[in-house]
Amino acid sequence: MSLRVRAPSVEDVPDEAARGFHVPCPAGRPGDAARFGDLRLSAAGVVDKPAFDASPASMRDLAYDLIRVLDDEGQALGPWNPQLSPDQLRSGLRTMMLTRAFDDRMFRAQRQGKTSFYIKCTGEEAIAAAAVEALEFGDMCFPSYRQQGLLIGRGYPLVMMMNQIFNNSADPLKGRQLPILYSSREFGFYSLSGNVGSRFPHAVGWAMASATLGSRDVAAAWIGDGTSAEGDFHSALTFAAVYRAPVILNIVNNQWAISSFQGLAGGAETTFAARGQGYGLPALRVDGNDFLAVYAATSWARSRARAGLGATLIELFTYRAAAHSTSDDPSRYRPADEAEHWPLGDPIARLRRHLLATQVLDEAEIETMEAEALALVRAAAKEAEAIGTLGQSPPSAKHMFEGVFATPDWRLVRQRGEVGV
Amino acid sequence: MTSMSMIKALNSALDVMMSRDERVVSFGEDAGYFGGVFRVTEGLQQKYGVQRSFDAPISEAGIIGVAIGMAARGLRPVPEIQFADYIYPAYDQIVSEAAKLRYRSDGMFSAPLTVRSPFGGGIFGGQTHSQSPEVIFAHVAGIKTVIPSNPYDAKGLLISAIEDDDPVIFFEPKRLYNGPFAGRHDQALATWAGHPDAEVEDGHYTVALGQARVVRAGSAVTVLAYGTMVHVALAAAQDTGVDAEVIDLRTLVPVDLPAIEASVKKTGRCVIVHEAPRTAGFGAELLSLVQENCFYHLEAPIERVCGWDTPYPHAFEWDYFPGPTRVGEALRRTVNSA
Asked: Which residue of A has its CA nearest to B144?
């Protein structure tokens, strides 16, 4: 295990610094060879696993190490190995494949003008897929826009996701939301919005309510490295710590917030996981591209929350392999091949390798799974496109006036009359 | 029935609702064990326990963010913001989340919380204890804004707000917590004892949201007011002898347009009074509504009597605070206008 980042020293400080403040820059820009500066990594299997009820003070190193189970050969090593069953492993791989196939299809749909916008989670599929397996179905999730795998893994109909993306007449959100901002209370997916971070404290409040109602469910939330700079991150951690809310707070450090590298949120000075220690929370730093490690950490945190010991902060260390969204072009701010050089690999490839190495699946079965994922996505797309893509069969404009309140007031009634719907 | 101060009436509303509905929880800075700096939540923790009435960190954004999560889960939170002057860190949570949650999720999630906050001046509180920020909430689709002017309405409106399935911002005129106040700062302070609007039912009752109240019927001019300014308007009518019809709006959003229309169509003249600064204050919205709906009945321009476009000053409290003299002058101008 290594801690390869050096704190700034006097020798580093150039003369120019005397005339200004430090502005952090990423290691590689377009045209450079892909580099990541100094990454804090650990070998698979070497990091200790404390009991879930151990004190935060006894596990401080876990915020600076990297919990990894799968090594580069696909072997599962160490105390964090969750010893999953073949069914769980297959289910996880299936969710990741389906997520990637869905992403590919919807990205192309945007380029074809069938929708205005789409966000892929390429390279981060294990984060949602493992959470689906480790959480209970009744645990409410407070995701960002990059955890669509939660819905996919929990069995939410792909066609309904597409209907929302196309804002067609079957859009479950009645045309009110930008594409990909799903909502499903039934499937435990809290309503998404385009502003970042503000739902982190909602997860804490939800969890506090669960506790006071005597319920056994746990809440889980996800926030990006960039967004962790927002005040809402801080208030969520404060309240989670003060009230020992049964919530799992995840920071998905995928290195990039649109064009802003993680150093602009303070990631060069310390780890994101380490922020939890300032609040007295247990903090785990996890290889986000390792399905087994993400499962294990989530499960650990869930046990802790269920036992009444409160919240855990988990940093999921990963890489945003694709653009921020269909409106973004990363070749303008980072080396074009940077994703290929990510030292922690691809989550789907790594779980595949593991399943092959442990003979849970063979190549033919994996190919069948991939073909099935593609077929499911195609079938859903066919169904959704038949209803209509963007602009073809929009919901009635009357929906603009409904849902503002439980019952519209006189202004909404009057204004709807002006529009004549 | 009991004669109650506004503080006692608000406390009673919370007590009644917490007794009646176990989903109702109250929290805020100093609002748990201590009962709040204005004592509105006094005794609730002792009676209902720490899960129902508790202290919160100094984090308005966190208080409201957590309240939204609780409300979405199924509780009926009544978070307190200690002074309306401190509500701004929570403004994003209110506007970007509470106000939009039902709409964007097609009702799968909603935020039935009631945000309570003392507001307004007349107390020598200076910039950060005297503000009236109601208009920035009135402007936001998806929330309701309510302001009582007396103990009876305070209890009934707060109960209605808590029972409402949508987010409600509930501003409490702190100048009126312990007694009516008409801006006669040189006179001895009155308490609510003996005031007819301080006779409050002990149990559960509601005052409907969205309904104004004609506090003083009149024929010469309509005065639209809320909060402390209702009392100032009554004093101005008394001092000048102008036969003003004083309307206490009680709910700013959704405002009771039929009541406003009926009155202005009757009197033909209108004066609007609020403590908040003049520019783009809620009076501008009221003035527009009157102009749009009652234009052909107007005999005079509509006047606004407001706070000045300055931060709320300390030593100049009575120069800033719209008192009965300033309101009286507006009444006279309006009725004398040809």
From this structure: A405
Report whether B60 contacts B95 (CB < 8 A): no
A156: its two tokens: 């939410």
Separation of alpha carbons A255 and B97, rounded Å: 27
* B129 carries an active-site annotation: yes
Q: How far apart are CA B299 and CA A243, in angstroms?
A: 60
Which of B54, B78, B103, B292 is the best mutation test for A, with the most CBs of A within 10 A? B103
Residue with tokens 């990637």: A100
Q: What is chain A's Cα-based Rg?
A: 22
User: What phi, psi does A152 have (nearest 5°)?
Assistant: -65, -45
Report pLDDT for A4.
44
Q: What are the tokens at A209?
A: 């309510």
What is the SS3 assignment for B208?
coil
Q: Which residues pair with B307 in a beta bridge?
A: B277
Distance (Å) from the alpha carbon of A80 to chain B's nearest alpha carbon? 32
Record the tokens describing residue A202, joined without a space: 């909602």
Chain B residues with CB under 8 Å of A405 CB are 102, 142, 144, 165-166
Among candidates A176, A181, A184 on the partner chain, residue whose Cβ is nearest the Cβ of B108: A184
Give the residue ranges of chain A where pLDDT is below 50: 1-4
CA distances to A44, A226, A254, A321, A322 from A337, rounded to whole Å, are 25, 22, 16, 9, 11
Q: Please list every residue in chain A whose beta carbon sits closer than 8 Å to the beta carbon of residue B59.
A: 235, 238-239
Distance CA A129, CA A114 (A): 27
From residue A133, alpha-carbon distances to A129, A153, A356 in Å are 7, 8, 20
Residue A11: what pLDDT? 66
Write down the pLDDT at residue A17: 54
With CA atoms as reference, report the closest residue to A289 among A70, A35, A62, A61.
A70
**Which residue is listed with tokens 């002058």?**
B329
Q: Which pLDDT tens digits describe chain B residue by residue (338 residues)?
A: 999 999 999 999 999 999 999 999 999 999 999 999 999 999 999 999 999 999 999 999 999 999 999 999 999 999 999 999 999 999 999 999 999 999 999 999 999 999 999 999 999 999 999 999 999 999 999 999 999 999 999 999 999 999 999 999 999 999 999 999 999 999 999 999 999 999 999 999 999 999 999 999 999 999 999 999 999 999 999 999 999 999 999 999 999 999 999 999 999 999 999 999 999 999 999 999 999 999 999 999 999 999 999 999 999 999 999 999 999 999 999 999 86
Helices B6-20, B151-163: inter-axial angle, 10-degree rounding? 30
Nearest CA in chain A to B62: A235
CA distance B141 to chain A (A): 7
Indicate yes or no: CB of A198 within 8 angstroms of CB of B165.
Answer: no
Question: Which residues in A have their CB inside 8 Å of a CB on B?
Answer: 140, 172-174, 176-177, 181, 183-186, 190-191, 193, 195, 198-210, 212-213, 219, 231-232, 235-236, 238-239, 242, 403-406, 409-411
CA distance A175 to chain B (A): 9
Kindly provide the ipTM of the predicted complex, given to two decimals. Answer: 0.97
SS3 for B129-176 is CCCCCHHHHHCCCCCEEECCCCHHHHHHHHHHHHHCCCCEEEEEEHHH
- Our measurement of the distance from residue B164's CA atom to the centroid of its chain's CA atoms, rounded to an integer in Å, reads 16
Burial of B10 (0-12, 13-18, 19+ CB in 10 A): buried
* B65·A191 Cβ contact <8 A: no
Closest CA to B149 of B252, B73, B220, B21: B252
CB contact under 8 A, A201 and B92: no
The three-class DSSP label of residue B251 is strand
Of B101, B107, B254, the CB nearest to A411: B254
Question: Both tokens of residue A345?
Answer: 């690999």
B105–A205 C-beta distance less than 8 A:
no
